[in-house]
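Much of our argument rests on the idea that a fold can be written as discrete symbols. The record that follows shows the chain in one-letter code together with its fold in token form.
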Amino acid sequence: MKGEIAEKLQSKIKNLPQEPGVYKYLNEEGVIIYVGKAKKLKNRVSSYFVKQHDASRKTRKLVSEIRDIETVVVDSELDALLLENNLIKEFQPKYNILLKDDKTYPYICITKERFPRVFSTRNIEAGKHEYYGPYASLRTMNTLLDLFKRLYKIRSCTYNLSRKNVDEGKFKICLEYHIHNCLGPCEGKQTEEEYEEDIKQIRSILKGKIGLAKGYLKDKMNTAAAEMEFEKAAQYKDKLDHLQNFQAKSLVTNPNIEEVEAYSIKSSESMSYVNFMKITDGVLHHTETVQVKKSMDESDEQVLLYAIFDFRKKYNTASRKVLTNIELEEVEELPFEAHVPKIGDMRRLIELSMKNVFHFMKEKEVLKQEKEDKKAHFQTLLQLKADLNLKELPVHIECFDNSNFQGTNPVAACVVFKDGKPSKKDYRHFHIKTVVGPDDFASMYEVVTRRYKRLLAESEPLPQLIIIDGGKGQLGMAVKALRDLEIYGTIPVIGIAKRLEEIYFPGDSLPLHIHKKSRSLALIQRLRDEAHRFGITFHRNRRSANSIHSELENIEGVGPATIKKLLTEFKSAANVKKASQTDIAAVIGNKKAETVVKYFKEKE
């Protein structure tokens, strides 16, 4: 740090008070790059500029960019924590922790109008209506809205139901009234007092106070029953059942736990993961897990405190009791009682919160790995493009391999890789139809012709590279097939010889030798090996099927229809051989069963 700048900063630090507050570090452009809180401002800020050789690399980098310091003195360490949280949210300094949350979650809105409406929204108009949420789980929100529809008759129209408009008869009841989803406040068929009572119950449920709504419905049911209004009593009982059913499904812990918030944290080197759960009357009211990017080697306690205040502000919660999986000792006076439960229902809540954290971490790690794999595959394809001097990036590659055993059961395989990964749904087997005997060259001509003739007929996309498992002879037959289809020259085609891993190009007698440790050669080898594996598996299955058939076909007097019945029932000739004459007779009759059993006995 230059002498003039260091002198200026040291002068500022010298005059800082030993009081709680927030400090802001600014860079050369006057942009806030870091916000921190302190119990004693002078001690905390000066600590950044002494013993720099002991500081972490990130801290040294931060200090090297500081050109000015601004501070705000507050009354307590708690006030400093709250102000720090707000400033980080407002300015998002690059060296501060950052909650990775780019989602806009929906809220449930209760409008501030006569006969309020209840609906979900992502657009918040502060001060205009009441909002409950946000709901990280759409399923939870929709379950609540469905519950309200079952319990209460809330209007869905957007009419302005002022007294004047209703008295003047400006509106007419609609279909919702006739199907009993609304009680017709637009025509004055429902009083404002009755409607507001329903809205009051909805508010209590949204705040997690299900007990209030249950008590109200129970009182109404008992009153109606006492007054001999049994139909009305049955309606209230039905609503009460719906509410109790909802509570039973939503219950995660003891219903006697009135209101509590649970937080858990798990960290890696550069990232922390925090879960939040709000429980009221034993019901999980809100839950969300976020990713927090650490910038300055913050402790778990620092990150968790930051996340707690962020969640409380976001969800508008103010529970007195907070459960955590780590001790919170950094701030002396918190606006809640925080403790780490060791046993009982509270401990089970923290364990549930931690399960959510671990699941979220695993999900993020899988996504990260997929991104890294995709990047690695892309780099490999770039290398392959350069090594083979291709015009296009080979995102779609196909590889062919022939397979036969002593000239029997000739088959071929085509495997397909997309974006550097196997696309197994696109793999294809081929029975060789036009070639007699073990002729690999003619077989290659047939399968390449059949493959691309079909793709052309079905207007399917062609690959950016074709690989032939074999040397110059098989490559030449593949080229001939492409020429006959009039697509040679539009698709690059190469052959790979097994012994020396030489790459052959059409018309070039000298092979290309790609470096043995090259990622592009590894990809070509993987395609070749996968085509070989796929073809060999198919070939073995076919040989096995044929050997089973020939064994049963050797039995005189047993025809194809009988063989089919036996194989359908016993699955293999070996199982037929093991079966008793009675079991075989149950499938093909006594006479033929006797013939089959006699055949296997004589063979033994």
User: Anything to note?
Assistant: DSSP finds 19 helices and 19 strands in the chain. The chain has five domains: 3-96, 107-208, 259-363, 396-543, 554-603. The first strand starts at residue 21 and ends at 26.
